[in-house]
Amino acid sequence: MRSGGQNLTLVRNVIRKSCHVVFATCLGLAVIAADAGPVQAQSRPGSFADLAQRLSPSVVNITTSQTITAQNPGLSPMIPEGSPFEDFFRDFMDRQEGAPQQRRAQALGSGFVISADGYIVTNNHVIEQADEIMVEFLDGSELPAELIGTDPRTDIAVLKVEPEDPLPFVAFGDSDLARVGDWVLAIGNPLGQGFSVSAGIVSARNRELSGSYDDFIQTDAAINRGNSGGPLFNMQGEVIGVNTAILSPNGGSIGIGFSMSSAVVTGVVDQLREFGETRRGWLGVRIQPVDEAVAEAIGLEDVRGALVADVPPGPAAEGGIEAGDVILSFDGQQIDEMRELPRVVAATQVGKAVRVIVFRDGRTKTLLVTLGRLEDSSTVEADSEGQNGKTTQPEQAEIAGMTLSGITAQMREQYDIPDSVDGVVVTAVDELSDAYERGMRPGQVIAEVGQRTVAAPSDVVAIIEEVQAAGRKSVLMLVRDGGEPRFVALDLDQ
Q: Looking at the whole model, is its pTM more than 0.70?
């Protein structure tokens, strides 16, 4: 999240961590205008029973499994490199380790059928790294599913089953028509309990969590493990969102849930069905917000658009866009806020020549830019360090089975990292890596590597590569978990 209490934790409902259901208290809504008499919001239904009965057959439970092979860790004392007991304990542990062990890991999630021939939408994290995917229907029947494609950027995946008979399915609705206060309905598989229905309202629109393409519907619905990938319906029975995340201090629901809007999901699903992958347009600029100070400084009458902070080699540079330009319109669509531009660009066809209206030197200028493909580029549409002092795309790196990121304000909220703790945050850990065996987990902060302070993922990578080049087999890291320090001796041979 980009705002909220410091102690609140944004819980991405990853498999085995925190998945989704949406249910909420039913609130009677009536808005009173000052001089116009009572204005009724969307009327409260007497019952959701008919709608739930009609929609439930199209919602599915998803069970995934994968085989994990790992050495028997046994006892794993952490002995600093150079300790006189290092060789003794290493020899002892070598004798204690058994043969590699295999185990089956299972996870549960939800999804929904979008075509009679068996296409199913769910969250990417529900099926990520799964060896087998089984889909259970309302009548108890099961079918194996094939993975058609995934999009980690929006956490969306498309599956395919082969039914003998046409399946009941649901259609996407227009999430842009949803209003704050509208009733919504969710059906899913909370905590493995099977098909469960819950209701709530739209609490807010156009929420942004951590991605450039985020467009979340916030609801007062409770989100629980097992409902990830489940649908959020409007009262016409159309899918307007895919349940994805919650804001929570402890992993349980406090009534702030997020569903990725159908405005984003439909385009992703169409591309995954057609190509098995996403093909987003790429402009090739780094942007930041336009505020009143910027607008006044450059003579821009209205505070709107996206300020170009940098133009690396790419389509924008070739089309004549320059640093300092303010993009006011893209392919006929007005850009009011910076965050609108990445989504509009991504939704535009790769290779299309588009008109871009920019404000430069006190006047507007129209440029023609031919878009590239984002997935083929090394530059992402994102704001750099902006006028609001936040970096939405921090530096990232992967090393020794860990995915590392620079610490941002939203990550401090997400992982409950105290302001006094600096370093590099761990956002993911390969479960088969030595780092995982040593207790490294997402949310922990690496403060030192090799007794040297680190401030960016590149620092960690550089030190580890330096240690490896010197022929050393391990490195000592100072790790802070919730502010509490501990040393981890990381084996670099694995």
A: no
